[in-house]
């Protein structure tokens, strides 16, 4: 089947000792439960289990590993998990894997509590497909109860001041204009359940703010929308502006942290005097800097010719603040070597720059893009030290140009 090629067959067991030298080095934190022949039957007799049968040397298994651990982190809660995410190393548990007819790696099987046998997962190995499969295997009545309890607290109507329940019918229209802070979730996800009352509180506290809506969408029901927005874990909190993803929120999930983030994205600051002083301070620094400040009006013309290395940032971003002096030094160094190479920056929080940053696919701060004769290069994601940044520009321009 296309996209479901097998890593290898059990009949190659004779060469496993050699292939074991290629074992994947897994992260120190492993959330998936490691099962063996000694505890397997007891485990599946106590709870639902979704199990990955794998071989450490298998390339497909290695690629699946981070997603499986992410799924396990969400599902394997201490208090009464609905399903346990587990794994079995078939190079160590030959008899167990043979018993469950494992003929290739990885094989994913769902063992439902109280039922004999298991159900094999045959879909694509991405988070939306896997979570949809889990929903199908869990008791449908239980899932409906969860969703009913969730809906009692949160109105499904698109009304100002309420937590907006997005669906396939209203999503595109609702987010097409304005600012939206959206929670992408799964009803069974424990982290989502803990966030739910805080998310409702956030919507209520912002009911008098006209410029933003607080919303949520169930990714186990509206899979395609979540795939379009590249949701890979739950909950995922995205800031969406005029229908386009601006960035993924990665801060604290308490009410104050979430509210502060919303106000920053809207440019609302309770301490206006302090904000004004900070803006003046930044402006003075900009006057001294060799870094060219770009905006929505001059961006296209500025990058049209030659090489322009641009930092897309937010003034409140800690990583951006840390990079700022290095970026200034980079501009000074480049200026002294080759004046035709421009080191620039764009403040994505400025009102006239928001659309520019969305168009340039800026999803977090800082984002570094180089442009060569107007054509955007791949995002720079290496070390942000001055020598590495200089080396990158040097290679981009060519040895004869710098």
UniProtKB/TrEMBL annotation:
InterPro entries listed in its UniProt record: PDI, PDI_thioredoxin-like_dom, Thioredoxin-like_sf, Thioredoxin_CS, Thioredoxin_domain
Keyword check for Transferase: no
Record domain Thioredoxin: where: 10-139, 144-267, 273-398
Signal peptide positions on this chain: 1-27
GO molecular function: protein disulfide isomerase activity
Gene3D superfamilies tied to this protein: Glutaredoxin (3.40.30.10)
One Pfam family this sequence matches: Thioredoxin
GO terms classed as biological process: protein folding
Gene Ontology CC annotations of this record: endoplasmic reticulum
Keywords: Redox-active center, Repeat, Signal
Parts of the chain that traverse the membrane: none
NCBIfam families for this protein: pdi_dom (TIGR01126)
Assigned protein family: Belongs to the protein disulfide isomerase family.
Descriptive protein name: Thioredoxin domain-containing protein
């Amino acid at each position: 089947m296309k996209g479901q090629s097998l890593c290898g067959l059990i009949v190659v067991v004779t060469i496993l000792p050699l292939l074991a030298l290629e074992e994947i080095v897994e992260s120190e934190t492993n959330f998936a439960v490691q099962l063996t022949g000694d505890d397997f039957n007891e485990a599946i007799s106590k709870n639902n289990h979704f199990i990955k049968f794998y071989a450490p040397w298998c390339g497909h298994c290695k690629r699946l590993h981070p997603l499986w651990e992410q799924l396990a982190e969400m599902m394997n809660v201490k208090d009464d998990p609905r399903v346990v995410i587990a794994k079995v190393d078939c190079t160590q548990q030959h008899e167990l894997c043979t018993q469950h007819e494992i003929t290739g790696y990885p094989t994913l099987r769902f063992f439902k509590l109280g039922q004999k046998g298991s159900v094999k997962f045959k879909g694509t190995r991405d988070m939306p497909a896997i979570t949809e499969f889990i929903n199908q295997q869990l008791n449908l009545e239980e899932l409906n109860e969860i969703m009913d309890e969730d809906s009692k607290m949160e109105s499904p109507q698109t009304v100002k001041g309420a937590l907006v329940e997005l669906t396939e019918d209203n999503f595109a229209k609702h987010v097409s204009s304005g600012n939206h802070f959206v929670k992408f979730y799964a009803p069974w996800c424990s982290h989502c359940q803990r966030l739910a009352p805080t998310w409702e509180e956030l919507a209520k506290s912002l009911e008098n703010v006209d410029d933003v809506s607080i919303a949520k969408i169930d990714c186990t029901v509206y899979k395609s929308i979540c795939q379009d927005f590249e949701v890979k874990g739950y909950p995922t909190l995205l800031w969406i502006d005029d229908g386009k993803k601006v960035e993924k929120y990665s801060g604290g999930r308490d009410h104050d942290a979430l509210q502060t983030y919303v106000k920053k994205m809207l440019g609302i600051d309770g301490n206006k005097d302090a904000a004004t002083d900070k803006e003046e301070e930044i402006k003075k620094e900009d006057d001294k800097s060799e870094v060219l400040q770009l905006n929505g009006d001059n961006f296209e013309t500025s990058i049209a010719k030659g090489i322009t290395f641009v930092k897309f940032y937010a003034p409140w971003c800690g990583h951006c603040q840390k990079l700022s002096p290095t970026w200034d030094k980079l501009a000074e160094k480049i200026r002294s070597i080759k004046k035709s190479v421009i080191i620039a920056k764009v403040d994505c929080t400025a009102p006239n720059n928001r659309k520019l940053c969305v168009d340039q696919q800026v999803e977090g701060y800082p984002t570094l893009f180089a442009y060569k004769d107007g054509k955007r290069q791949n995002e720079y994601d290496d070390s942000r030290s001055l020598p590495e940044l200089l080396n990158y520009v040097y290679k981009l321009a060519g040895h004869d140009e710098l």
